[in-house]
Amino acid sequence: MTPDTPARTDGDLPTQQPSRDEARTNASTAPGERGAAESADRQGPVPAGAAASEPETRIAELERKLAETQERYLRAVAEVENVRRRSQEEVARAQKFGIESFAESLLPVKDSLELALAADAPDVENMKEGVGATLRLLSSAFEKNRLVEIDPQGQKFDPNLHQAISTVPAAGIQPPVAPGHVAHVLQKGYLIADRVLRPALVTVVQD
């Protein structure tokens, strides 16, 4: 120690300077931490009611959707009931008035027969003409109501449409008829809407 150098005490120890790396770290992190703290201070604490209101809102929404679903279901049930009631009414009307069209088409037939009976001493030719006209009216009524005649003379026997009451030998039948075919029609059959109303009564040529 030289005479010119003053003595140093503990309070006069030199201050330790931070290194360059520590200075850069402090400079980069300190502003961000201060900003986060300031933002948290500005926002303040989250209200307890805000967190509780979210489930209540969800429940209200679900209740609203449930009410809408129940309303749609009730409307659908009411519509099905209306359709069922209308169907029953239509079936009842069909059962009650199902033959209305057919009955209406038979009225001209009855009128024709009454006119024939009211004629004074008709001759045979006039009577036959009147009967022919009446038959045509009846055939027209059948046609309008899809009542189709089955007249299978000479046709192959069909058990779905014909009822055979006997078989006959092929010999002597004029005109000739092939075996298994209808030889004579004793009574015509009828179909109504492709359903057999009455099968035709026939005789069939023996095989």
Question: What does it look like?
Answer:
The strands form two sheets. A three-stranded antiparallel sheet has the order 1-4-5. The longest helix is centred in the middle third of the chain and has 50 residues, at 48-97. It has helices at 20-43, 48-97, 100-118, 124-144, and strands spanning 147-150, 162-168, 182-187, 189-192, 195-198, 200-205. The protein is of the alpha+beta class and 207 residues long. The radius of gyration is 55 Å and the shape is elongated. The model is unreliable at 1-15 and 27-33 (pLDDT under 50).
Give keywords:
about 210 residues, alpha+beta, elongated, three-stranded antiparallel sheet
Label the overall shape: elongated
Total E-strand runs: 6
Question: What topology, given as strand order, has the largest sheet?
Answer: 1-4-5
Mean pLDDT score: 80
Instruction: State the helix count.
Output: 4
Give helix % range. Answer: 55-70%
Strand content: 5-15%
Given helix and strand content, the structural type is alpha+beta
Largest beta-sheet characterization: 3 strands, antiparallel
Secondary-structure blueprint:
Blueprint: H1 20-43, H2 48-97, H3 100-118, H4 124-144, E1 147-150, E2 162-168, E3 182-187, E4 189-192, E5 195-198, E6 200-205
Parallel strand pairs: 2-6
Antiparallel strand pairs: 1-4, 3-6, 4-5
Give a brief description.
The chain is of the alpha+beta class and 207 residues long. It is built from four helices and six strands.
